[in-house]
Amino acid sequence: MSEERVFPFGAPFAIGRVPAADGAEESTSSQDHGRNPGMPLKTDWFEEMRINASAVERRAGTLATRRGLKKQWQAAWLLKALMSIDLTTLAGDDTPARVRRLCAKARRPLRTDLVEALGLAEMPKVAAVCVYPTMVGPAVKALDGSGIPVASVATGFPAGLMPLPLRLEEIRYAVSQGASEIDIVITRAHVFAQDWQALYDEVAAMREASGAAHMKAILATGDLKTFQNVYSASMVAMMAGADFIKTSTGKEDVNATLPVSLVMVRAIRDYLERTGVKIGFKPAGGLKTAKDALAWQILMKEELGRDWLERDLFRIGASSLLGDIERHIEQFLTGRPSSAMRHAVG
Which of 246, 278, 307, 312 is labelled catalytic? Predict the structure, then answer.
């Protein structure tokens, strides 16, 4: 690898900070923002909101063109994206062996030669590993001592149509197995009926069942159909105590899109302005390329600011994305195209 392509920022910069597009260092915030305390339901915060769909589409369509990220700056942003990934396996044929392989990749998401060439003092790690409740135990054991948390989907994922007591018991089971993050699924029927009290009570009960575990509320935006429904469901979930709002289960016909994500992060911004509480955001489903990762990071930076590039406020639900990020980093270092076959996910 040529001397000129060695990553110029060193470990403290690359692991903890993201460069601006012009190369200047931006301040970093890695503090834990704590739990969302929630608040009483206030339907007037969203029922009076009117969303201009064409303006949303237009704004989302220009986001990725507003910042030019090339060379070492693009590599730094991709490293930050890598460290925001909830590395996920949610397949019907998951096994403890598959989960152990995924956890091994979570511990070492980049090849050692790439880490050395980037000038990093330590191996970067993904933000979390996300599995089904029955796979939490094997994941916790495989990640012991790594500092990487285990997230578990729950509440009848992906449909969320089990009776509420069973959904709450599934949360408690996952927590008892060692999950420190819970990704719950809302009941879409409450949104369609605009039964906001029922949705609020459901999410609040799930938050209570999660205990000390941070809770991400999956809205399944592809099922919700309208931007108005997405905004309203986002606000109700945050009021009920969700620490993150998440786009999708990954199982809907339409998963994370930039326009829907824009509506959700605007809801986060509105909630912050009214309450002072910072809520995290997680796009999931369909994010497969390094270009996708950059687009969502730009969304976070443009709409919410620098703090939302850190893993405590931004996650990406993905599996194959990690391999493409590694491929682009190798291409940056060598100046040559890199085949996807050289970068296994797990």
Answer: 246
Note whether residue 18 is domain-resident. Answer: no
Q: How many domains does the chain have?
A: 1
- pLDDT (0 to 100) of residue 345: 57
User: Among the options 80, 216, 278, 282, which is catalytic?
Assistant: 282
> Known catalytic residue: 195?
no
> What backbone torsions phi and psi does residue 67 show, to the nearest 5 degrees?
-125, 130
For residue 177, what are the domain limits? Answer: 3-12+44-342
- Percent of all residues in the chain with a pLDDT value above 70, rounded to a whole number: 88
Structure tokens at 42: 């206030």
CA distances (Å), 339 to each of 70, 199, 287, 326, in order? Answer: 20, 46, 19, 10
58 exposure class (CB count in 10 Å sphere: 0-12, 13-18, 19+): exposed
* Domain presence at residue 199: yes
What is the predicted pLDDT for the residue at 34? Answer: 79
pTM of the predicted protein model: 0.90
Q: Is the per-residue pLDDT at 182 higher than 50?
A: yes
Active site residue 291: no
pLDDT at residue 27, as a whole number: 38
Residue 37 placed within a domain: no
Q: List the catalytic residue out of 86, 183, 307, 312.
A: 183
Q: Is 183 a catalytic residue?
A: yes
Is residue 19 one of the residues assigned to a domain? no
Give me the CATH number covering residue 167.
3.20.20.70
249-283: per-residue pLDDT in tens? 999 999 999 999 999 999 999 999 999 999 999 99
pLDDT score of 71: 84
